[in-house]
Amino acid sequence: MTERIFRYLREQQPETPCLVIDLDLVEHNFRRMRELLPAAHIFYAVKANPAAQILSRLAGLGSKFDTASRGEIEMVQATGISMDRISFGNTIKKEKDIAWAYQQGVRLFAFDSEAELQKLARVAPGARVFCRVLVDCGGAEWPLSKKFGCAPEMAKDLLRKAREWGLDPYGISFHVGSQQTDLDQWDKALAQVSQMFFALAEEGVDLRMVNLGGGFPARYRAEVNSIESYCEAVGRALVRHFGNRMPEVIIEPGRSMVGDAGVIQSEVVLVSRKAANDRKRWIYLDIGKFSGLAETMDESIKYRLRTARDGTRVGPVVLAGPTCDSADILYEKTEYKLPLSLKPGDKVEILSTGAYTTTYSSVAFNGFAPLKAICI
Ligand SMILES: *Cc1c(COP(=O)(O)O)cnc(C)c1O
């Protein structure tokens, strides 16, 4: 937690639950990534956190944006940047939304199927298009790939067709899975992608761009490698596989840009046991799976917690949200220990929650308001 967030929470005592984001840390994360991968164009993945102040801070720093829908494009447009800084990166788009984006001036689109390419050819003539390929997501704590991307042979075939159909076959993208812990995954993916590049070049289809997606980490319970080592691994893999035929490089960090910059302040609602001799206490917070902590699904993302009673004796807990749904349990199998003296009304801070929280929060399940974001 940054000093600024710490001070804000102490002085303002905001109504809980709420997410507090330190914009200076977002800016620092952006600058650091640009410094470490100077040749790459950074397209911030808007879905990680689309708070208007985050988008405008990043826009002011020169960031570009990876968007998934008309709604996200409109949020980015509100910052006043030009449309050539937007990528419509979702491979699943309505034709009318593609037409709308094209009319607004967006010229960079993703696809991973023939039917999607046909839509693009119909309503976005001449646009730069890139094909997403399937890659191995092993090592990712929040895998993304199975649903997106196609096999390399199909990708090559579609990129040939793109040209025939009046589009500009611009490049290839992949995503190694979010919160990727295995630094070798970029190397493996780039080995595959560079082969496709060179094979297509021999046929006269000259791709010019490779999009490495996201996958860079935030700091949850487990130690992670530094962002320096991630960027070094990516840089090394690019040189190894492309050498002096380096294409334009795009990266789309979401989680690593905003994750560590946010802290959720929550409050204990109830501490109970299911039987007098139960070893584990149940601790119910005023935030759960439906109010922003969706990435605890299958206990995938394991957040760090902080309480004012840290340093006193602890015992094992099951951690749950406040709604009347039995799926609203955050951690049951994963061992979490919290102070034995914890009681209703105590604050619990959930660290590194700047990414994938506010947008996952339901509108008002059980009457609980959507998670508020406060940018400072
Ligand atoms: C979600 C997403 C990202 C961001 O991934 P992170 O792991 O959060 O950095 C980037 N690109 C695409 C296409 C995505 O869908």
TrEMBL record:
GO terms for molecular function: ornithine decarboxylase activity. The keyword Lyase applies. GO terms for cellular component: cytoplasm. Residues 24-258 form the Orn/DAP/Arg decarboxylase 2 N-terminal domain. It is an enzyme of class 4 (lyase). Its EC number is 4.1.1.17. Its cofactor is pyridoxal 5'-phosphate. InterPro entries: Ala_racemase/Decarboxylase_C (IPR009006), De-COase2_N (IPR022644), De-COase2_pyr-phos_BS (IPR022653), Orn/DAP/Arg_de-COase (IPR000183), Orn_de-COase (IPR002433), PLP-binding_barrel (IPR029066). Signal peptide: none annotated. It catalyses: L-ornithine + H(+) = putrescine + CO2. Keywords: Lyase, Pyridoxal phosphate. Pathway: Amine and polyamine biosynthesis; putrescine biosynthesis via L-ornithine pathway; putrescine from L-ornithine: step 1/1. The active site is at C324 (proton donor). The modification N6-(pyridoxal phosphate)lysine is found at K47. The keyword Zinc-finger does not apply. Gene3D superfamilies: Alanine racemase (3.20.20.10), Lyase, Ornithine Decarboxylase, Chain A, domain 1 (2.40.37.10). GO terms for biological process: putrescine biosynthetic process from arginine, via ornithine. Belongs to the Orn/Lys/Arg decarboxylase class-II family. This is ornithine decarboxylase. It comes from Enhydrobacter aerosaccus.
